[in-house]
Amino acid sequence: MTKWKYWGMVAVAALWLGIALIAWVKIPDALSLQERRPLAQFPEVRLENVGNGKFMEDFESYTLDQFPGRNMFRRLKALTHYYVFWQGDNNGIYLTQGQAAALEYPLRENSVDRAVKLMSGLQEKYFPDSRVFVSVVPDKGYYLASANGYPAMDYEKLFAKMAAMKNTSYVNLTDCLSGEDYYSTDTHWRQERLFNAAGRLCTALDIPAPRQEEYRAVAAAEPFYGVYYGQAALPLKPDRLYTLESELMDQCRVYNYETGATIGIYDREKLKGDDLYEVFLSGSVSLLTIENPVAETDRELIVFRDSFGSAIAPLLVQGYKTVTLVDIRYLSSAMLGRFLDFHGQDVLFLYSTIVLNNSETLK
Asked: Which tens digits make up the pLDDT trace of 269-288?
């Protein structure tokens, strides 16, 4: 063995020994801010877990999540996948037309059928005499995937299933949007580009549409790194997040049933956090009511929604005294009667294709 080979082996051994020592002594991270998910922790040592192999399975997950320099190696892997092996995606994230997007494929028809059944049950139980509207927010893969050679779910079949819900009016938003109306590093749509979509909903609801000239777009000070930024593990250019402000928005107040607090439409404290998109109606909250103190009507609207609804709901308040947002991903639909008095309000089911294709999140 030559001297160079000997010292090379020593260096490699020392490197891996050092990484192993660091892995054992470092305090495990609880969360991955880049990936927006909790990290595996050291598994509990129990005889039954060791005997059935679960301990080793969980330990493997722990070592992968807590590996020293993990984000650096994730980025190296992503760069290799995209620019050395020319693979189409990394971790299910692909890049096209300046956008990062997730592969949403195939269509899970049973999931959509489950969502339809759940919504129909809510209608029958709580608001059989209300005007009920259904609308679907297409994820940006609708505009980007198949047009750029990536697999895409059967969106038309999904829309058809939702439009076929009995005793409802379907509102199509697909021609009101384009791929550019979404954040390039995130799944969500951009509020400042939602006037066409909001106008379409307002026409269906028979309320005045928001007038763009009455709003001003205000940029957040910090750059917005969306969920796909961390999942892609690539040095993507961050987005700039804008909120829409107006005299009406300034006057509206939002009651949070979880905290009992009343705040404005925008929770500016969220702009100091890890996910700037939570500035819209405080993010993932199960039950909120927006009160319009200058409403010229007593009409009320209830919106069953996911996170996409947080950005567009403020553009519907001009036609209602109150707009209540319900997120049954976090609040069981069986408990709605404890919190809401259903008395003939307009009702809008507004869900993204992502949630409908994974409806087990709805309770």
From this structure: 999 888 899 999 998 899 99
